[in-house]
Amino acid sequence: xxxxxxxxxxxxICRRKGDAEKMLLCDSCDRGHHMYCLRPAIxxxxxxxxxxxxxxxxxxxxSPRKVVRTKSFSQDESSEEEExxxxxxxxxxxxxxxxxxxxxxxxxxxxxxxxxxxxxxKPQKKGQKPSSAKKSTSESRRERSTRRNDxxxxxSNNRRRATGVWKDLASCEEILSELIKHKDSWPFxxxxxxxxxxxxxxxxxxxxxxGTVHKKMKEVQYPTPTxxxxxxxxxFLNCHEYNESRSxxxxxxxxxxxxxxxxxxxxxxxxxxxxxxxxxxxRTT
Length: 285
Fold this sequence. Notes:
It contains 7 helices and 2 strands, in the order ββααααααα. By secondary structure, the protein is mostly helical. Among the domains are: 55 residues, Zinc/RING finger domain, C3HC4 (zinc finger) (Herpes Virus-1), CATH 3.30.40; 114 residues, Up-down Bundle (Histone Acetyltransferase, Chain A). A hairpin with a 6-residue loop joins strand 1 and strand 2. Helix 3 crosses helix 5 and helix 3 packs antiparallel against helix 7.
């Protein structure tokens, strides 16, 4: 029982103990999950049995094709019974109808109206003006040429840049999700609490955390990857400015920063990083 208690359980997501009041145990696999580590986060302890995302029972869905097939089979059976009843009546009048249909098909010929035929044009002599069709083709060619002239190299480059930026932002979102799932991201997932660290906001003038970066990414507040990379770098700068280099938090920041740099290099977006000016380190007493 002690191995399955809330006090001894480790969170399956952040792999850490603690916060027993905010720890949930799955009623199926008995694994611990912090309420704030779940996505979406749970603020209130659920009543009754609770199952983790891996143990939730999946409801079976009935495909619409099966329903349509059952309806079609029932309709086919009813239609077959009606056809058997009407076969005897239709056999007698089949010959008469064939004769009448053949006569009506000969007499009533459908008239097609508004038909367009292409008449071959005669070769024009010298001195004659071109036809309207040739004028329209020449005008369309001129419009195409003007559109091509309007597409200057600057505009085409801007379009290419815009499409490239959206692809790079998508890779930034993937890197952010991997940063949050990293084992050393636990000090940087949420903002620093004023109650736990009263003098933090007196020293750090630009506080930032991965949760705030994730919120901005979902709200599309980053026009380019440059702003995203600068705010993630600000997290590491704040950590090294406030904490000592031998502390656990500073070591976690160093490990996470190396992981972040390698991911930027693999995604080929490290060129978006703006030059970082060194800040004064905190004096230790």
